Amino acid sequence: SRLLRLLIHRYFFTLQVLCRYQHTWTIDLRLRPAFLAGIMQATGNKPPAMLPKRAEYLLEDVKRMAKYYQVPLRISAESFQNILGKSNLGAMRFLTAVDMTQPQHLEPLSREFWIRFWSQHEDISQPDNMLSVARQAGLSSELAQKTLEMVSSPAVKNRLKETTDEALKYGAFGMPAVVAHFNGEPHLFFGSDRLELLGSVIGE
Fold first, then answer.
1. How many CB atoms lie within 10 A of CB 2?
2. I need a labelling partner for 14 at 20 to 30 A (CA). Which of 28, 130, 181, 201 fits?
3. Are 89 and 37 in contact, with CB atoms under 8 Å apart?
4. Residue 31 and residue 107 in contact, taking contact as beta carbons nearer than 8 Å
5. Which pLDDT does position 8 carry in this prediction?
6. Quick one: average pLDDT of 39-58?
7. Which range scores top for mean pLDDT: 36-50, 109-123, 136-150?
């Protein structure tokens, strides 16, 4: 079996590439919304941008990756710091609710959330923005509103926590994280720059 679980947060490059390759590689790609702050806290990890020189590097690196992967991105030093300071918990709960009820919409929703966050610099945890994202991704107004109402429910909160705990069980300490289940064994990959190693492990 070739099951890949991708923990989705704000990191679009890994999502974009795996979505492009899922049919070429013949993999079963499953997107799993998880809460990055919970993973960071549990592992004692800290955001790399807290180190000023690394933040400078990350800004340029993100621009290079956007060009390489041909992904739309508009970002400056100011917007980069502003983006990193925003919470995405509401968006992750929204995606979790969709995963529980209409999982076929998870991929387009994840893409649209990324565009709003990184290219348009919107607060994706605001209800109006979540509804707008949902409509753009193809959800009906009725379904989008119903999903929004689920965001604060115990069922959705518990599901997101369970997924986050599962990520920790596999050894995740940040995102993007991919757990590749291949030949009966799980393999954890961290970062968008490990996609070649992922391909190598699954024989691609």
1. 16
2. 130
3. yes
4. yes
5. 62
6. 86
7. 136-150
Number of alpha carbons in the 13 Å side-chain half-sphere of residue 43: 20
Backbone angles phi, psi at 32, to 5 degrees: -125, 105
Indicate the pTM of the whole model.
0.87
Q: What is the predicted pLDDT for the residue at 10?
A: 52
pLDDT single digits (tens) 125-153: 889 999 999 999 999 999 999 999 999 99
* Cβ count within 10 A of residue 203: 9
Q: What's the CA gap between 54 and 49, in Å, rounded?
A: 6
Superfamily of domain 2-202: Glutaredoxin (3.40.30.10)
* CA–CA distances in Å: residue 114 to residues 52, 73, 153: 24, 10, 24
The Cα–Cα gap between 193 and 14 comes to: 8
C-alpha torsion angle, residues 100, 102, 108, 114 (rounded to 10)? -30
Separation of alpha carbons 38 and 188, rounded Å? 18
